[in-house]
Description:
CATH architecture of chain A: Up-down Bundle
Oligomer: heterodimer
Strand order of the largest sheet of chain B: 2-1-5-3-4
Structural class of chain A: mainly alpha
Bound molecules: iron/sulfur cluster, FE2/S2 (inorganic) cluster
Number of domains of chain A: 1
Amino acid sequence: MVTNATSLGRSGLFDWLVQRFSALVLLAWIAWVGIGIASAPEFGYPQWRALFAATPLQIFSLIAVLSLCAHAWVGMWTVTTDYLNEAHLGRAGTAIRLLIQAVCLLLTLACLLWGARIFWGSG
Amino acid sequence: MSQVLVSIYRYNPELDSKPRMQSLEVDVPGDRDLMVLDVLELAKAKDPSITYRRSCREGVCGSDGMNINGVNGLACITPLSKAAGPARKLVLRPLPGLPVVRDLVVDLSQFYEQFEKIKPWLINDEPPPAIERLQSPEERAKLDGLYECILCACCTTSCPSFWWNPDKFVGPAGLLQSYRFLADSRDAATTERLAELDDPFSVFRCRGIMNCVSVCPKGLNPTRAIGKIRNMLVEQGT
Ligand code: SF4
Ligand code: SF4
Ligand code: FES
């Protein structure tokens, strides 16, 4: 049995469920915001502010950002273990994979914190 | 008589620095269809150094899996007319993704290692009854579409996930057999079998693109079996 230190849950089932669940959350978020935009008779900056001032959407948006990050991480982890390995890149494969995974992790974390600041910050 | 142009992958790792394609004109009877294996035999009559495996010549042993005009299949039951089409050109290569031993013969060790991993035998420690372990006709019917696999490797070597992770992803043939034992009412190791499969690679590298289904010469459906294993993992793990 293969475990893998850099996969999200170290279980294939966990990663698989995270991928499906986060996709559904993102779909619901897009629908929520899309309906919010489409149902306003006229849409501009004030309506946009009002839409996101509602606490439920603020909370849900943060969940959506979390889902996006988890989804992206599982996806990028899968792609890196498929293509950035010794079969494709020779002996440097593992080092390159770890490097790219670290970059992905940093970007994902940055995205998460940035999202939190946008939706919960005082701005 | 009519002519077929056959292009064959030639490689002897001990002598050649790289593989090459050899072209041969082969005369085939004009009044009936041949199988690809027959054409290969005719080509071998012209050049006896061409190397391939075959045994039963009727789609039972699984020895002559190869890549025929870009599609994996058994040469002995693939009609020339279907493979070569109106262009009358045959291109034969070894099964993709595995080391070549010589010409159309590949080293199947990794394929068999994955098969071994899923413990392809019945596990049941209860004392056997006097005659045999019985199954109802319904329980037996669950094994249909699973037990017929001849391990020809056509499916597994057409699967990109196996190409990229042949040491970690069990592959369609192994997983079809894994489900054959998970679905067997006489097998008592379901929990242990599932625990062995719940890592990020063994089952979950399947992306469901169904290359395996489209090439299986026995008409089996590994993707469906993989889906059933996944459902069992979800049931047990949530
Ligand atoms: S599932 Fe089909 S293609 Fe795959 S090894 Fe078995 S018989 Fe061959
Ligand atoms: S369905 Fe799964 S096992 Fe079959 S070829 Fe695609 S990835 Fe491989
Ligand atoms: S020779 Fe046995 S399957 Fe083709």
